[in-house]
Amino acid sequence: MEHKTHFKEMTMIEHLEELRTMLIKVILILFVGFSIVYSFSDQLSSILLAPLKLAIGTKGQIVYLSVFDKVIVQLQLSFWSSIIITSPLWFLQLWQFIKPGLYVHEIKVIRPFMVTGFILFCLGVFFAYEVVFPFTLNVLVHFGTQDIAASISFKEYIILCIKALVLFGILFQIPNVMVILGFLEIVTKQSLSSIRRYAYVLFTVVAGIITPPDVISQIMLLFPLILLYEISILAVALIVHPYLYKKYAN
After folding, report:
1. Read out DSSP for 121-156?
2. 60 conformational bin, left if phi > 0, alpha if psi -120 to 50, beta if neither
3. Which residues partner with 138 through β-bridges?
4. More confident site: 212 or 151
5. Burial of 165 (0-12, 13-18, 19+ CB in 10 A)
6. Phi and psi (nearest 5°) for 65?
7. pLDDT in the model for residue 7
């Protein structure tokens, strides 16, 4: 019979000690990452501002409304950037903590998708920055009356960018999550296909809630969600089903 490791055999005190040690390591990783990233916060701000500057051209300006705006933006940008950049390190600590509580087959299934998850997150960030930002900003800036100069809040724009990048990074995990659930025999190609219409409705609602109240932004989020869901079905069919067929055939 397949067994879990020492996790279940530990006392509550020992378990809490391991949890405390793991949290301390994660905090230290984030602190060091934040300290490093903060020194490059101006460059990061410039990178995020590039699509907006390209969209408004000479017909607008980016302003800050408070003397504290730049400080707040730098802190938030550095914080979220450090979480993203150091994610392989702190996620490794989390993995080492939960790994003893898993069965051997669960470990074999989940481990490869940690790397895949990071790659998908980066792809989500890249897609948002290179595709969603330029298209959406260009449409919104040039929508309606054209002889009005834009004054865009530096703080609001950067914070919106941060949220959008993190959001797309998370949403791009859908195929990864579905394949893991497939290996754990929670979902199948058939089950995912059968609830496709409900998933689309859910995606529409989610896109309407978490995007600005304009159709363009909602569509730019809805289409990737639908595409990711279809990729999930394909991935489960091509990766999970052959594995499970071979497993039960033996």
Report:
1. HHHHHHHIIIIIHHHHHHHHHTSS-SS--EEEEHHH
2. beta
3. none
4. 151
5. buried
6. -95, -10
7. 47
Tell me the mean pLDDT in the region 16-32.
89
The residue with tokens 């897609």 is: 127
Q: Are 234 and 193 in contact (CB under 8 A)?
A: no
DSSP 100: G
Outline where DSSP puts E strands in the chain. 60-63, 150-153
State the virtual CA torsion across 146, 152, 157, 160 in degrees, nearest 10. -60
Query: Do strands 150-153 and 60-63 pair parallel, antiparallel, or not at all (unpaired)?
Result: parallel
- Sorted by sequence, the CB contacts under 8 Å of residue 52 that are 6+ apart come out as 62, 133, 137, 152, 157
DSSP-derived 3-state class of residue 60: strand
Using 50, 70 and 90 to split pLDDT, how confident is the model at 6?
Answer: very low
Tokens representing 212? 């600005």
Q: Which residues pair with residue 62 across a beta bridge? A: 152
Q: What are 63's strand-pairing partners?
A: 153
The secondary structure element, H or E, covering residue 237 is none
Single-letter amino acid, residue 111: R
Q: What is the pLDDT of residues 184-210, one digit of tens each?
A: 788 899 999 999 999 999 988 888 877
Between 46 and 142, name the one with better pLDDT. 46
Query: Quick one: tokens of 205?
Result: 């609602």
- Run of H or E including 7: none
CA distance 28 to 35: 11
Q: Which pTM value belongs to this model?
A: 0.78
**Which pairs with CB-CB distance under 8 Å and at least 24 residues apart come from 107-114?**
109/180, 109/183, 109/184, 110/180, 113/176, 113/179, 113/180
